[in-house]
Amino acid sequence: MICLGNICRSPLAEGILRKLTSNKNIIVDSAGTSSYHIGESPDSRMILTAKKFSIDISNLKARKFSTSDFDKFDLIYAMDSSNYKDIIKLARNNNDCKKVKLISKNDIPDPFYENIESFEKVYFLLESACKKIIETIE
Question: How far is CA 128 from CA 13, 44, 97, in A?
Answer without folding.
Answer: 10, 22, 24
